Amino acid sequence: MYKADNISLYAHLKNVPLFNSLTNEQLKILFEAGITKNFPKERIIVYQHDPGDTFYIVVTGKVKITLLNEDGKEIVLSLLKEGDFFGEMSLLDNETRSASAVAIENTTLFLLTRIQFHKLIATYSDILTKIFKEICARLRHANEKIESLAFLDVYGRTIRLLQQLAHDQGEKTKNGIEISHAPTHKEIASMVGASRETITRIIKVLKENHTLVSYKGRKVILREHTNKLFI
Predict the structure, then answer these.
(1) What is the DSSP string of 70-115?
(2) Nearest 5°: phi and psi at 119?
(3) Are the C-beta atoms of 7 and 55 separated by less than 8 Å?
(4) Burial class (CB within 10 angstroms; exposed 0-12, middle 13-18, buried 19+) of 113
(5) Predicted TM-score of the model (pTM)
(6) Looking at 3-12, 39-48, 146-155, 169-178, which range is the least confident one?
(7) DSSP bridge partners of 109
(8) Which of 76, 94, 202, 206 could cross-link to 212 by cystine, CB 3.0-4.6 Å?
């Protein structure tokens, strides 16, 4: 019998898109092969350039994938939510970690070691296909980020980011496209290469010109037509 907390974790794992083709019995075997770990807010999970020997799946919480430049300035590459995964690249190419991962709220992760990960993708080839598809999507997003940094000003980059978030995780409502787990002003600044103060001013302008319906905490509502300007 599973303890109550293990039952909850197992239920979360069933909802991970990566595993939606597995039967309950296969999922149970996978669940018993891995381990779960809790990380408090702001805890660094992995460091850039460290050896990579573990695959991580976000069960609950939120994780940011970051780089630090020579001046120690943080660049946020992506924000991962429940059901997302990271750490696969080091396990596929045997290189060191390409970026750091940090819990930005209290987070629970499901971990598979290198051996368990390779057994998983060898046994269930469709999972490897899904992983490659996600890697390709991240590469496309990276190319879009490079393009926006090269050709758009901060205002344009901010709108592009909000559009991408709306496209990836937004839900259509009567008021517009709602993003329920949006980044903070500080996180947006790290993602578009600007200061927090600049982003705060831009958000104010976007509200005034009605591009944004509202931006309260981590809940953002973007006017529906705005999502079609660049994407």
Answers:
(1) TT--EEEEEEE-TT-EE-HHHHHH--B-SSEEEESSSEEEEEEEHH
(2) -65, -40
(3) no
(4) middle
(5) 0.75
(6) 3-12
(7) 37, 58
(8) 206
